[in-house]
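Re: that chain you flagged

S.,

Sorry for the slow reply, it's been a week of failed gels. I finally had a moment to sit down with the sequence you sent. For the record, here it is as I used it:
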Amino acid sequence: MTLSYLDHRFDESDIRRAVGAVRLSRPLGPQDASIEEKAAKYLGVDLASLLWVPNFESKVKGTVMVTVVPPVGQSGLSYHADLVRLTVTPATPEAERLSKTKIEEIQKRP
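Prediction finished late last night. Pasting the structure tokens below so you have them in one place:
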């Protein structure tokens, strides 16, 4: 019972760290907007209305897939968060394009 509880607590911590890493990541460097800001503008919604859905890819490798979901509909914005190497990389072509685009150039999706 104790081991199960501890495992659950570590999992929760990893999930929080992964989501935080994706949300705050600045793909083009420190002068760039965060993925959270870019996603909100791209999806045409308020920052607070975005839902961040994490799914473990591998507990052993410390990798989590984090998908950005707007209040209505779906998005193709998914990112790999590697908690061992402390990296965030786009997992979908749509996320790749968004990561390489400056916030001033982002248009709302049709």
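What I noticed first: The chain has a mean pLDDT of 89.

Talk soon,
D.
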